[in-house]
């Protein structure tokens, strides 16, 4: 079954076609990766899906509903959340409070209810606290719950961003280069967390330059180049696809094996 469907999605910036007639489906199960050389249009694609930018043409359907051009908050409330290429945390808040902010995305009690503190809002607060602590445990951050987010080392800040996004209980999570800046060990831990997120029923769509992570986590891969989709399939299929190899060769680097593909993807 399809969680997300893109039909002929296009985005122009003046004369530049950053995303050009792209169609693909993100199935409910598993991890889907979007790869492509620098400037291929991956981040623009995420901006279109999450509502940060309206498409110039095409349709985006999430859970059977047309979400094309809807505001980002509405799309997030429907269960489609994203993380960013650069970490965006509330630095002055504690690690736990950062995750609670994510939980409130799915909370029912509005501002007035929370201010008046009727029983339902208090119950919700307790649920939020419990869920936030669960998410911290999930991301291996329980020991840092009361520390300011700004005090965490970079790798843990990325995990915190992931925990916060998951706290909203999303049906689909968009991860923009989650392994950027992580060392090998952190990257391996991230791969395990991504697999677990998918196994627990949240569909994952990720942009990633780290080919080891893509090969280890993705069930299917969509390849874009100059805004167009040039291939899709299993990681092994796309790696052997001549159009994909040519796209990476076009950046002046070889793509004949794992290490070389990773090199090329870094462009
Ligand atoms: N707001 C904008 N205005 C004008 N051009 C833009 C804008 N955003 C992106 N572009 C252009 O669209 C193209 C695709 O950019 P995009 O950032 O989506 O690529 P990418 O695949 O995410 O690249 P990278 O891997 O380097 O992050 C690039 O040529 C970029 O310069």
From TrEMBL:
- Give the ABC transporter domain ranges: 4-251
InterPro entries cross-referenced by the UniProt entry? AAA+_ATPase (IPR003593), ABC_AA/LPS_Transport (IPR051120), ABC_transporter-like_ATP-bd (IPR003439), BCA_ABC_TP_C (IPR032823), P-loop_NTPase (IPR027417)
The family database entries (SUPFAM superfamilies) matched by this protein are listed as:
P-loop containing nucleoside triphosphate hydrolases
Q: Does the keyword NADP apply?
A: no
Q: What is the lineage of its organism?
A: Bacteria, Pseudomonadati, Pseudomonadota, Alphaproteobacteria, Hyphomicrobiales
Concerning Pfam families, the annotation shows: ABC_tran, BCA_ABC_TP_C
**Cellular component GO terms, alphabetical:** plasma membrane
Query: What terms describe the molecular function in GO for this protein?
Result: ATP binding; ATP hydrolysis activity
- Where are the bilayer-spanning segments? none
Protein's UniProt name: ABC transporter domain-containing protein
* UniProt KW ATP-binding keyword: yes
Naturally occurring in which organism (per UniProt):
Bosea vaviloviae
CDD domains attached to this UniProt entry:
ABC_Mj1267_LivG_branched
Query: What keywords does the record list, in alphabetical order?
Result: ATP-binding, Nucleotide-binding, Transport
